[in-house]
Amino acid sequence: MRVDNIIAKLAAVGADLSTRNAIKMALSLISEDEELTDQIYVEIKNKAYKEDFAKVPVEKRAVFIPQCLRNVKECPAEFGEYGWECTKCGKCVIGDIIEHGEKLGYKQFYIVPGGSLVKKILKEKVPKGEIKAALGIACWPELAEANEKLSILKIPLQAVPLLRAGCINTLVDIERVKAALEIGLKQENKSPAFSTDVNPQPTP
User: Fold this and answer.
1) Side-chain-side CA neighbours of residue 138 (13 Å)
2) Is 171 part of any domain?
3) Rounded distance between C-alpha atoms, residue 110 and residue 117, angstroms
4) Which helix (H) or strand (E) holds 66?
5) CA–CA distance, 44 with 51 (Å, rounded to integer)
6) Is residue 180 in some structural domain?
7) Which of 57, 88, 119, 162 has an alpha carbon 20 to 30 Å from 32's alpha carbon atom?
């Protein structure tokens, strides 16, 4: 995997990998594409927070799903207080994600239109102890921003990128989502998508 190789290369030269800006500067120094900054940052944070995420009971893990994965033309879901309320109609992958999560014991799924609703949910539920970890699906820049914000709240995040970004009818690797849901559980799949050669400490 190219990103893993770049991360290993950055680590070998002692580059600061703690922030997005630091990674961007490090990439320029080794003549790599700075557009990979968010991807590298997210993959490093996935590795750094995986152990903490694994320790959180599944009922305390919130799963944030972007509304762009919906089949907008045929979706029968209605919009509620915390986002779209999936009916598991089978017309998109969201129902499959929720069903797999429910089998594992997950209780909190939020199909959200954007960051403002995510902030509202976190503001309401983190202080009450209802959310102690999060799994997010989004494009690379949004996942990088989420990592920065959740690290302040000390909420470990596992992030899964969209395969095709955009505002509607996006795509995600359903197997990678399932593997992320299973982190810390007996049936966890050992996926190379979560493997890197470095284990940096998460920023406070």
Assistant:
1) 25
2) yes
3) 9
4) strand 61-66
5) 13
6) yes
7) 162
With a cut of 80, say whether residue 189 has pLDDT above it: no
The strands making up 171-172's β-sheet, listed across from edge to edge, are 78-80, 83-85, 108-112, 61-66, 133-138, 157-164, 171-172
The answer to whether residue 11 is domain-embedded is no
d(CA 193, CA 46): 10
Helix (H, G, I), strand (E, B) or coil at 182: coil
> What gap in Å lies between CA 133 and CA 56, rounded to an integer?
7
Quickly list H helices, 126-163: 140-152
Backbone angles phi, psi at 120, to 5 degrees: -60, -45
Cα–Cα distance measured from residue 112 to residue 85, given in angstroms and rounded to the nearest whole number: 10
Q: How far apart are CA 99 and CA 123, in angstroms?
A: 26
Residue 196 burial class via C-beta count within 10 angstroms: exposed 0-12, middle 13-18, buried 19 and up: buried
State how far the Cα of 202 lies from the Cα of 194, in Å rounded to an integer: 16
- pLDDT digits 0-9 by tens, 147-177: 999 989 999 999 999 998 777 888 999 999 9
Q: How far, in Å, CA of 104 to CA of 140, rounded?
A: 26
Domain hosting residue 170, numbered range? 47-194
Q: Does 125 reside within a domain? A: yes
